């Protein structure tokens, strides 16, 4: 189980997020997709949450998997969070495995 904690500084419009106690930086994820030059956000379906989702998945999965699934992760876990502070626990590896299985089943149905 992965613990994700976010603190939002409304004065500076900046979100700090930790994943299992490690502070995340947007810089690594911005090298792959620069959705949000200003950093992380959550609580809506925008660029800041997309940047955060990508950063989380890059820390927990291979690059190609992170790139394939971060928008789904954003929609499922980050969009509806409180815009201030949050703390959630997600079994990211299990969630990713289910996404891959659903995609494989969809492809199988199409053939």
Please give a structural write-up.
With 111 residues, this protein is an alpha+beta fold. It has one domain. The protein has a four-stranded antiparallel β-sheet with strand order 3-2-1-4, with helices on one face. The N and C termini lie far apart (35 Å). The mean pLDDT is 94.
What layout of secondary structure does this protein have?
Layout lengths: L1 E8 L4 E6 L2 E2 L2 H5 L16 H14 L2 H16 L7 E5 L1 H19 L1
Antiparallel strand pairs: 1-2, 1-4, 2-3
Helix pairs in contact: 2-3
As laid out across the biggest beta sheet, the strand order is 3-2-1-4
Strand content: 15-25%
Shape: globular
Number of domains: 1
The share of residues in helices is 40-55%
Structural class: alpha+beta
Mean pLDDT: 94
Secondary structure tally, helices: 4
Q: Separation of termini?
A: 35 Å
> Using only CA atoms, what is the Rg?
14 Å
Order of helices and strands: EEEHHHEH
What summary fits the major beta sheet?
4 strands, antiparallel
Number of strands: 4
Low-confidence stretches: none
């Amino acid at each position: 189980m992965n613990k994700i904690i976010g603190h939002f500084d409304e004065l500076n419009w900046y979100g700090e997020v930790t994943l299992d106690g490690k502070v995340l930086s947007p810089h690594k994820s911005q090298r792959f997709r620069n959705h949000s030059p200003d950093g992380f956000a959550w609580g809506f379906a925008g660029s800041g949450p997309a940047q955060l989702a990508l950063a989380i998945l890059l820390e927990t999965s291979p690059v190609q998997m992170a790139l394939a699934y971060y928008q789904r992760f954003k929609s499922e876990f980050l969009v509806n969070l409180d815009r201030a502070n949050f703390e959630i626990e997600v079994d990211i590896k299990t969630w990713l495995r289910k996404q891959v299985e659903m995609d494989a089943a969809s492809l199988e149905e199409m053939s």
